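Entry for the shared binder. Reason: the reviewer on the internal report wants the predicted structure included alongside the sequence.
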Amino acid sequence: MSTTKILGLGNALVDIVIQLENDNQLNELNLPKGSMQLVDLERAQQILNYFKDSPKTITSGGSCANTLNGIANLGGNASFIGCVGNDKYGEFFNADMLENGIKPHLFKGTVGTGTAITLMSPDSERTFATYLGSAIELSDNHLSPELFSGYDYFHIEGYLVQNYDLIRTAIVLAKKAGCRVSLDLASYNVVEENLPFLMEMVENHVDILFANEEEAHAFCAKSPREALGFFAELVDYAVVKIGKKGSYLQHKNYVEHAGGVIVDVIDTNGAGDAYAAGFLYGLMTNMDLKDCGLLGAKLAGEVVTVVGPKLLKKQWKKILNKT
C-alpha cells in the first residue's frame, strides 16, 4: 500500500453501457460518434427508450472515479469527492467505492444520481449521452480546506469544466494543501467548448496533464509529438496518448515514448481513465517516467478487452501478480 495519498473530484455517474448494432443508430439519435454530449433527463429517457429492448451493463463510472478505482486496486490510497442523488443509483455508487477501497466524500443532491449512457459502436468507439443529475449540483460551496488536508495528489476530470467556480476553488484548496494537480482533458469537444478556461487552468495551476491525440489537437492544433512539447512548457508532466502505439511523455527536458499493448479490443470505454490510473500510481510510488507510461498502457490494454470502464477482479489478480 502506497503511503502517498490521492484525492479526486469528478462527476459521480452510473454507466449504462449499450452495444450498438451499427452506427446508423447514432445518426438516428443525432449523436456525433465519439463525442460526449450532455443531455437533460427527458433526452436521456428518450435514448433509453430507443434501446429499451437492447441488453445493458450497469456499473459505477465517471472518469475520475474510474481512475481512482484503478489506483486503489493497485494498492494506492484514494479518496473521491462527488455528489449523488438519494436513490438506488446513489447507494450503488457509494457501495462500489467502498468495495474497491476508495474513501467516498459524497454529498447528496436534490435530483437523481447522474447517468452516462455509453453507446459502443461495432469498432469499439464509444459515444456518451450524459445526464449529470445530482453530479452537477456539486459546487464550490461543498469544498473546504479540511477535505484536501493530508493529500499529495489531486486529480480532476475534464468533464467538470462546465463548472468554472468549482474547479478554481478546488485547485486553490489543493495547492494550499500542497497537492500536485492532475487534469485529464477527457474529450475533444469539451476542450473545444472550454478552451480559454482550460488554457488558463493548465498554464497557471496544473502539474500533470493527460490528453489523447484528438484532445491535444483541439487544445493546440498540433501533432501529438509537437503537442507534447507545447504542454511540457506549461506543466511538470505532459502525457499525450496515441492509442495502440502507446504514449509520449515529457518531464522537464526528459522525453520518453512508452509503447502500447496489442490486444483484441472489445470496448474502449475507460481506456484513458485506466491509463491515468497506472501513470499516477507510478508517480505515487516513484517509478521512472517510462515505467509510469508502461503501467498506464498495461491497464488500458486490459480494460479495453472487457465491456465497461473498469477491470474485472480476475484481471487485477493477473496484473498484481506481474506488477
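Summary line for the report: The longest strand covers residues 77-84.
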